[in-house]
Amino acid sequence: IQATKAAFMREHWNRAPFLGSLVDNERLIDAFCEGDVHQILNKCRKADNGAYSAEEISEMEAALDAHGRTLNQPYCFCEGACELYNAAVDAFGDLSNDIEVGVYISKA
Q1: Are strands 103-105 and 71-73 parallel, antiparallel or unpaired?
Q2: By Cβ atoms counted within 10 A, which residue in 1, 7, 69, 100 is the most buried?
């Protein structure tokens, strides 16, 4: 992702979402529990900051595996999510007061 702070502020801040991608050798899969869905979900939190129960995690995994349901978890705290958060704070300083890193898990 090649964007300067000034360009980001001019083109995206309070205007449009910023989307980027990583090339294969820069994937963060290792820092996202090596792609282990159960471990990732265990590092996610509900909107009230509560952890998911083992039963809730099992239900989400079953929905993903059996029904192909996409899992959208907006509050993730695995190593990779924390690294992305810290990178945004480092890049945007005091403008980064409301950043959350989430995960979107699908079989596709």
Answers
A1: antiparallel
A2: 69
What CA–CA distance (Å, rounded) separates 100 from 77? 9
Please state the domain extents for the chain.
27-105
Cα–Cα dist 47/25, whole Å: 33
Where would I find the H helices in 3-42? 5-11, 37-42
User: Taking the CB of residue 41, how many other CB atoms lie within 10 A of it?
Assistant: 23
Torsion sign across C-alpha atoms 82, 68, 65, 45: positive
Q: C-alpha angle 20/43/102, rounded to 5°?
A: 25
C-alpha 22/C-alpha 43 separation (Å) is 22
Positions in the chain whose pLDDT score sits under 50: 1-2
pTM: 0.74
* 16: Cα within 13 Å, side-chain hemisphere: 8
Q: Which of the 8 DSSP states describes residue 95?
A: G
Among the listed residues 99, 101, 104, 102, the one whose alpha carbon sits nearest the alpha carbon of residue 8: 99
